[in-house]
Backbone:
């Protein structure tokens, strides 16, 4: 489980392209490509620049998509965990800031 | 290319090389064999014999090489297929390199001399290496910048000054290409010992390393890692990861440089990330250098699809570091194509067509959508075409712009 203040940054080893609302990623180290779903694409775009913390991402998600807060929280947890496992995102613990 | 024996030398090759060696010996002795004078002397001797030398066919050279019984400087060296030592004097030697599959990596030299292309053309690139930071006695990280590009033809001569002021590589366009070199020979050389450096990467993500005289255990590590990855990849990665804490950055880098060429995508990323995590920010620059190195290595594999010297030229032009504008300019100047975009597109389409039946991971296979995206990129168009939407083509562009061998065309 992520903390509210945990911060997330894109890993610059990944190139990305948004095409017709969908984000595609390329892991430059492996050469593999992956396609993000609509929520994932939205979050990836939100993370451009200096990144956001969990709370900010959750608020943006609820504001943009017609989704219950608990569902949004679960979706966000799952998405962030998956992209961290793939190394596309880096997590900065609130405690380390 | 004429491959018939010529019988057109007034004297045989051994006598010609004896005569050239005598001229080098005489001129060099007059300078008290100053090492720095050899490049110019060697170039002048090659120039004086240019007419006879460029008249040689590949068959002449091969026939004489098979008959030679003289000592060989580096008979087992992979530099040349093979290297041929024609004459070994006390302080210098005359050699040829026969090139079939090999092109050179980027390197400088531990000797002085000069070389001439005898048979075939070569792309010759020169570089400078700036801002080097020493990571170990045999490893420096710095910035490798291209400073010259040219096509060498039979009879073209270039001097080789020892040291890092002359850093270059060669990509041979004809199969075979043959070069002739007059170079100092270290057995009795007055040159202070200096190991040849090889250079990897480009721009700020580059490193230079002593490439000769490496310890045997380094070879053992590389070969063992290759075998381990082939049969037990998980064990290979586990052992590599554990060595990261024990070995120097340089030792880990050399294992990685070797094995990265053979690893599948996911393990490749895992190895590179483990290396970065173990050795900090400088390892990030080294990883970028290895990625560029791998891209150029992949091009050497694609090169096997070449049917003629113009296909080879295309693969030579696609090597990093370059970009679309540079590639098109060089096509214009070297092929005289009135429309370099069309020349490039048709060559790639032809190579892709030929690759369709090839069951290898390095065969270029461009499907119809990729070809449309490629044509749009080369011509600067962005509108949809035929059955493909703008989104389809944007996706194809994204794929192509991050894959060897065409990624440079999106720069």
Residues:
């Amino acid at each position: 489980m992520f903390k509210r203040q945990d911060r997330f940054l894109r890993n610059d080893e990944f190139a990305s392209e948004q095409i017709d609302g969908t984000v595609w990623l390329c892991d430059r180290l492996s050469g593999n490509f992956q396609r993000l779903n609509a929520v994932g694409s939205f979050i990836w775009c939100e993370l451009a620049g200096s990144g956001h913390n969990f709370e900010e991402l959750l608020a943006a998600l609820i504001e943009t998509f017609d989704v219950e807060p608990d569902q949004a929280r679960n979706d966000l947890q799952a998405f962030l965990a998956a992209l961290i496992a793939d190394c596309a995102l880096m997590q900065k613990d609130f405690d380390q800031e | 290319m004429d491959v018939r024996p010529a019988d057109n030398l007034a004297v045989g090759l051994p006598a010609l090389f004896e005569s050239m060696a005598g001229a080098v010996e005489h001129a060099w002795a007059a300078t008290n064999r100053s090492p720095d004078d050899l490049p110019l002397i060697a170039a002048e001797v090659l120039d004086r014999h240019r007419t006879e030398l460029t008249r040689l066919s590949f068959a002449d050279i091969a026939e004489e090489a098979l008959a030679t019984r003289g000592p060989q400087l580096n008979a087992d060296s992979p530099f040349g297929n093979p290297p041929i030592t024609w004459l070994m004097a006390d302080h210098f030697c005359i050699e040829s390199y026969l090139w079939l599959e090999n092109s050179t990596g980027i390197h400088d030299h531990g000797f002085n001399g000069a070389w001439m292309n005898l048979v075939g053309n070569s792309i010759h690139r020169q570089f400078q290496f700036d801002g080097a930071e020493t990571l170990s006695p045999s490893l420096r990280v710095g910035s490798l910048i291209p400073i010259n590009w040219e096509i060498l033809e039979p009879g073209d001569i270039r001097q080789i000054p020892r040291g890092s002021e002359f850093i270059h590589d060669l990509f041979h366009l004809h199969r075979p290409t043959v070069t002739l070199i007059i170079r100092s020979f270290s057995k009795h050389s007055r040159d202070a010992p200096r190991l040849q450096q090889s250079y990897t990467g480009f721009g700020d993500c580059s490193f230079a390393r002593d490439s000769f005289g490496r310890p045997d255990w380094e070879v053992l590590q590389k070969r063992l890692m290759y075998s381990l990855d082939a049969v037990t990849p998980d064990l290979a990665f586990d052992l590599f990861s554990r060595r990261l804490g024990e070995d120097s950055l340089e030792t880990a880098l050399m294992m990685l440089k070797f094995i990265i060429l053979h690893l599948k995508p996911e393990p490749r990323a895992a190895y590179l990330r483990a290396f970065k995590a173990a050795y900090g920010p400088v390892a990030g620059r080294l990883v970028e250098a290895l990625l560029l190195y791998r891209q150029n290595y992949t091009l050497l594999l694609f090169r096997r699809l070449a049917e003629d010297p113009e296909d080879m030229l295309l693969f030579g032009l696609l090597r990093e570091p370059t970009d679309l504008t540079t590639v098109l300019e060089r096509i214009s100047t070297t092929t005289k194509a009135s429309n370099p975009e069309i020349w490039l597109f048709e060559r790639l389409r032809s190579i892709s067509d030929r690759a369709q039946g090839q069951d290898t991971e390095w065969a270029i296979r461009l499907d119809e959508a990729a070809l449309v995206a490629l044509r749009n990129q080369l011509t600067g168009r962005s509108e949809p075409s035929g059955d493909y939407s703008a989104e389809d083509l944007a996706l194809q562009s994204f794929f192509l712009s991050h894959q060897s061998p065409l990624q440079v065309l999106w720069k």
Remarks:
- The interface with chain B takes residues 13, 15, 17, 19-20, 24, 26-33, 87 of chain A (CB under 8 Å).
- The longest helix of chain A spans residues 69-85.
